[in-house]
Amino acid sequence: MNKDLFGKALLDYQNENYTEDLITSTSISDEDALPLPYLFRAYSEMPKLEQKALKLAKGHVLDVGCGSGIHALWLQDKDLKVKAIDNSKGAIEVAKKRGILNAELKPLLEETETFDTILLLMNGTGIFQELSEVSTYLKHLKSLLNPDGQILIDSSDISYMYEDEDGGMWLDLNQGYPGELDYFLSYKGEKEVPMKWLYLDFETLKTACLTVGLKCDKVMDGEHFDYLANLY
């Protein structure tokens, strides 16, 4: 069972008990602080890629992995009907405290309503966990779309993280797809149960979409090997 340290951290910040940040690391990167204020950022503080996704959102919106509700709140303020879901009990509690009208503790694969826009931001492909699960998630996402609906999802091509100083690659071909990582989180000295987290390069995402009958267009590139895609 995970300890919901992410939710605890969000609750601390919401309740003005902010004393330290979340610490994250992966199987290929060292520990790094994830500042809690960043998880409560305003629209003006968001990367252009996130701003673009929010501007493209239309109709009834599902915000997957809503966290503190930053995207859902902005959309609600624009008079869009939004449902926000997250696996973190603390995150949903915070989202409700901040004014999200429809926030639910629910894994994506248990969602059954249909939507005009589905948002998966802040490396939205992460929740697919590993390459072998991508088609399962994409088929389910497709089943949640209304006619003319869209899925706005971002991710990164992290192959640059495997380059050595000479520009060569040190990929271990026995390890499978390079975007499959183990993700570690700790907060106030407690360690979360490690989880799998997937970064998908655009061409791999596009190929996976074709196999389940989804079209995939790149909307824009971000500033650091990341991109926003529109699936429909």
What does this entry look like structurally?
It is a single chain. The protein has helices spanning 5-14, 48-56, 70-77, 89-97, 134-143, 202-211; strands at residues 22-26, 29-34, 60-64, 81-86, 103-105, 115-120, 145-156, 180-187, 190-191, 195-198, 216-221, 226-231. It has 232 residues and is α/β, with parallel strands linked by helices. The two termini are 35 Å apart. The strands form 2 sheets. Strands 5-4-3-6-7-12-11 form a 7-stranded mixed beta sheet, with helices on both faces. Strands 1, 2, 8, 9 and 10 form a 5-stranded antiparallel beta sheet that branches. The mean pLDDT is 95. The chain is globular and about 45 Å long. The chain has 6 helices and 12 strands.
Order of helices and strands: HEEHEHEHEEHEEEEHEE
Number of helices: 6
Q: List the strand order in the largest sheet.
A: 5-4-3-6-7-12-11
Global geometry: globular
Structural class of the helices, strands and pairings? Answer: alpha/beta
Compact description:
The chain has 232 residues and is α/β, with parallel strands linked by helices. It is built from six helices and twelve strands.
Features:
232 residues, alpha/beta, five-stranded antiparallel beta sheet, 6 helices, 12 strands
